[in-house]
């Protein structure tokens, strides 16, 4: 069931979302060749705790770390490790979710590590643009599919990229994951009417090939990779539907 947030909840979710955005911005300054994803995790964890919040991913359904760090062909849920060292030419998605005073804020971005390839640059740009265009179209009275799937899919297909279909955005705020599930491609499953007070993430995961398939790591049970080894990028914001449009909370 979709939770329509009241003003007290919106205020709390906005504060947590703003903190998540601050964490991500701070963390991005450390993204450079030679740093481990474990070091990035530790920096984020310390920052979140020092701001009287909790890293939501830590121990969530057994996830062992405080953020997700997804490199190159890792679509999402990459587990930080001392063995994973960033190198020139990589791209990395940093996914941060905070719990502040019981409320959740969720955001992610994909960053270049040093100088990256032209296809990596285009992938990052298209993924970010798909999120921006989707957010701009949000308005009460429209449906999720009109504003998300029908906006993102044509752009992505025009670039000969593909949208990961098994994963999507989600309601958020009072819990980490709530209804509705947000599909990033055109589907009747997304025919959810937008109403003021709804809060959810839009977080397109785009592969740099025409193959949208993914695999899940059989050993850790979390890391999701592109099936064909192509690069993948993701951008995510927590969004509030307002009486006249929408508000990005994770800024």
Order of helices and strands: HHEEEEEHHHEEEEEEEEEE
Strand tally, please? 15
**In CATH's first tier, which class applies?**
Alpha Beta
**Which architecture would the CATH scheme give at its second level?**
Alpha-Beta Complex
Mean of pLDDT: 98
Q: What is the CATH T-level topology?
A: Creatine Amidinohydrolase
Number of domains: 1
What would you report as the Rg, rounded to the nearest angstrom? 17 Å
Structure notes:
This protein is of the alpha+beta class and 251 residues long. The chain has one domain: Creatinase/methionine aminopeptidase superfamily (Creatine Amidinohydrolase, Alpha-Beta Complex). It is built from five helices and 15 strands. Strands 1, 2, 4 and 5 form a four-stranded antiparallel beta sheet that branches. It has a three-stranded antiparallel beta sheet with strand order 3-12-11, with no helix packed on it. The chain has a three-stranded antiparallel beta sheet with strand order 6-10-13, covered by helices on one side. A hairpin with a 4-residue loop joins β14 and β15. α1 packs across α2. The mean pLDDT is 98.
Question: What is the gist of this entry?
Answer:
With 251 residues, this protein is an alpha+beta fold. It has helices spanning 7-28, 37-50, 118-137, 144-147, 149-158, and strands spanning 54-55, 68-71, 74-76, 91-100, 103-112, 162-163, 169-171, 178-182, 199-202, 205-207, 214-216, 224-226, 232-234, 237-241, 246-248.
């Amino acid at each position: 069931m979709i939770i329509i947030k009241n003003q007290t909840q919106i205020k709390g979710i906005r504060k947590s979302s703003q903190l998540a955005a601050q964490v991500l911005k701070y963390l991005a300054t450390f993204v450079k060749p030679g740093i481990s994803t474990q070091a990035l995790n530790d920096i984020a964890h310390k920052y979140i705790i020092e701001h009287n919040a909790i890293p939501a991913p830590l121990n969530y359904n057994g996830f062992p770390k405080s953020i997700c760090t997804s490199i190159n062909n890792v679509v999402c849920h990459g587990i930080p490790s001392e063995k994973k060292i960033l190198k020139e030419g990589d791209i990395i998605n940093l996914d941060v979710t905070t719990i502040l005073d019981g409320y959740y804020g969720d955001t992610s971005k994909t960053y270049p590590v040093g100088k990256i390839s032209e296809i990596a640059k285009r992938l990052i740009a298209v993924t970010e643009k798909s999120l921006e265009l989707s957010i701009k179209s949000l308005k009460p009275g429209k449906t999720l599919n009109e504003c998300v799937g029908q906006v993102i899919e044509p752009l992505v297909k025009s670039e000969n990229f593909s949208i990961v279909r098994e994963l999507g955005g989600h309601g958020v705020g009072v819990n980490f994951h709530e209804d509705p599930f947000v599909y990033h491609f055109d589907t009747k499953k997304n025919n959810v009417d937008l109403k003021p007070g709804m809060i959810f993430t839009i977080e397109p995961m785009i592969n740099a090939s025409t193959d949208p398939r993914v695999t899940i790591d059989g050993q850790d049970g979390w890391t999701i990779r592109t099936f064909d080894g192509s690069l993948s990028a993701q951008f995510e914001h927590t969004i509030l539907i307002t009486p006249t449009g929408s508000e990005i909370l994770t800024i």
